[in-house]
Amino acid sequence: MKSISKQHIISSLKNRLRIGVATALAMSAIVGGALTAEAQVNAEQCLTIGKNVLSMDDYMLSIQYFNQAIKAKPYLSDPYFFRGLAKLYLEDYKGAEEDCTLAIERNKFKTESYKVRGFARQYLGKDSLAIEDYKIGLESNPQDKYFLFYKAVAETELRRLKDADSTFSTLLRLYPRFDEGIGARGMMRAIAGDTIGALADLDESIRLSPATLNPRLQRAEILSRQKKWSEAIEDMNQAIILKPQETDYYLNRAYLRYNNDDFFGAMADYNYALELQPYNSAALFNRALLRYEVRDLDRAAADFKEVLRLDPDNFHARYNLGLVDLDRAKYREALGQFGEILKKYPRFYPAYYARAEAFQKLGDMRSAIQNANEAETLIKRYVKNPKGYKLDRPTIVAGKTNTSGHLAGADDDESEMEVMERFNQLVTVGASENAQLSYNEKIKGRVQDRDLLVRPEDSFSLTFIAGPLTLQNSSAYFRELDDFNRPGYVNGTLYLGSGDPTPKEESDMTAIFNKATYYQTVIKEGQAQPADYLAAAVALTMLRNYDEALALLDEVIGKDPRFTLAYIARAYARTARASMIPSEAETKSDPLSQQIEARRIQAALADYETALSLNPRLIYARYNQGNIYYNLHDYTSALQCYSEALRLDPEFGQALYNRGLCYLQMGNKRQAFLDLSKAGELGVLASYNLLKRMK
């Protein structure tokens, strides 16, 4: 089984960090600074509320309060520290590190800041820097349990095993019943090759805390290496009882069951894993291999094809699909699969042998002999000069193919049977620590674990219904909207909100219908002003009557070509109308529909451009243009639009999030990470979920 040491130890450490919150809260009870009474009350009130919200695990909301405290008193340490702590719980480790650094710059004597920063650095792989932070903390408190614990784990990660053993000795001398420390020492001993000592520590950790997950997973890993399948399965059974929604546990238990000759149990685990995560490529790959082994060829082929749909570069799945096609007498399909492999791995000799067999079955003996000879030539060259003429050996990790072309950790003189055995092996995965929210949870808790659809934040549209209170800082306000609402031109207030403006409540739906009917009547009676046309059009757009709304907007713009709100309303209605005609399947086969949709989209872009010519600071028009380009897969143009909006308002959270998606689509993960992290800080809920997926 794949090593799970760091992931599980780190997860454990993060859970233990919660103990430090109460201490930190107590330490920050008094904040200094001589300011006006009003400023002091506002900053301290925001800080106090933020800490209370943080203690209730409402991390997103707490960050917003700490933001306000920082704006009021940017020289205080505590708001940065607690914002960093909230980011840590949201798994934004880079943001946590940066905030704790800012906290330390303002107060270098606050040891909790070093603890949180050290932990964040540890998770980012900066173990040496983390150890330096822990050393500073231990200078102030040499018996702090968690400074010692984290330091020992970081030393283990750096393979400073003597240092780690010394730190563990100090830790367990002071806290002899600290089960997590005992379990972590067990992992360190396993790395050092002391399997007996490792199992003794893990056994003791489980005895002290039977409901603790990590020692069972670590013990299962060691037992699997010893081929003690039944005992390892029992530990995985207990892990699944403790965390029944963790997909990776079922994959690892299936691997153990397979090796224990329990094919039925292994298949059941793969099936259930795919019920939890239908697009888990490792589960699909393993189930396909198992189906292939029991000669369920058609369903094995279907699973391999699904793996390739999710991961087109998975050459292990492609090779095995070729073998399945050979067995299904689909020889030309098999040739296609092997040909794709040889384009990237021209010295992967088994593909030549397989292709020779396919040609032979098709009666093309000349091609069959050529491919068999090519395989023989590759092997002979390798035998004569193993180091100078290495064979291609694609690696496999959790269902994915390594691009290096050589088997990870393989010796050059390993047998060909060993190469093929590894090429067709079942894969295991490190068990992750994903927590699932119940269906009714919204923003509270570990929002990064919510299974959110990755799509851009919605466009802004005019509406008569005030949107719900959100965590996002950007206020949907612009001059023309205020000028329209202030004199009371229409009955009601116009808002600019993001998301589908269609009323969700029956009472709201009735009110909008009544409003649309009223203004339509005013227009028919010939008493209407431009504001009445706009009000009717907005109401009709909210009711998805786009054709009539567009007709009214065309008319009012004809009367008043400088009516900025009308351009915003018409652009949105045109975009929404274009998305309705016709269905996607019909559009692809109907050139006329494609032309109509394209014309409406271009007209919408032009309307937003006109609105921007009337008000160059109308960031929502530029943002909406970005969304149109994003949906057209023109990520370069979308990125330019979002960047322009952010130039005018750097804290426009939705634009940061959408720009992050653009960077992600364009392969710039570093810049995507920075934008998404900042968007999460500004209250865009989906950011932390996506950041976690990126890791």
Quick structural overview:
This protein is mainly alpha-helical and 695 residues long.
How large is the share of residues in beta strands?
Answer: under 5%
What is the CA-atom radius of gyration, in angstroms? 31 Å
Stretches with pLDDT under 50, minimum 5 residues? 18-41, 396-423, 431-446, 582-588
Number of helices: 35
Profile the largest sheet.
2 strands, antiparallel
Structural class: mainly alpha
Q: Estimate percent helicity.
A: 55-70%
How far is the N terminus from the C terminus?
21 Å
Tell me what the structure shows:
By secondary structure, the protein is an all-alpha fold. The chain is 68% helix and 2% strand. It has 35 helices and 4 strands. The protein has helices at residues 5-17, 19-27, 37-55, 59-72, 78-89, 93-106, 111-123, 127-140, 145-157, 161-174, 179-191, 195-208, 214-225, 229-242, 247-259, 263-276, 281-293, 297-310, 315-327, 331-344, 349-361, 365-384, 416-423, 479-485, 506-524, 530-542, 546-559, 564-578, 584-589, 591-614, 619-631, 635-648, 653-665, 669-681, 686-694; strands at residues 396-397, 400-401, 460-463, 495-498. The strands form 2 sheets. It has a two-stranded antiparallel ribbon. A two-stranded antiparallel ribbon has the order 3-4. The relative contact order is 0.06.
Secondary-structure map with pairings?
Layout: H1 5-17, H2 19-27, H3 37-55, H4 59-72, H5 78-89, H6 93-106, H7 111-123, H8 127-140, H9 145-157, H10 161-174, H11 179-191, H12 195-208, H13 214-225, H14 229-242, H15 247-259, H16 263-276, H17 281-293, H18 297-310, H19 315-327, H20 331-344, H21 349-361, H22 365-384, E1 396-397, E2 400-401, H23 416-423, E3 460-463, H24 479-485, E4 495-498, H25 506-524, H26 530-542, H27 546-559, H28 564-578, H29 584-589, H30 591-614, H31 619-631, H32 635-648, H33 653-665, H34 669-681, H35 686-694
Antiparallel strand pairs: 1-2, 3-4
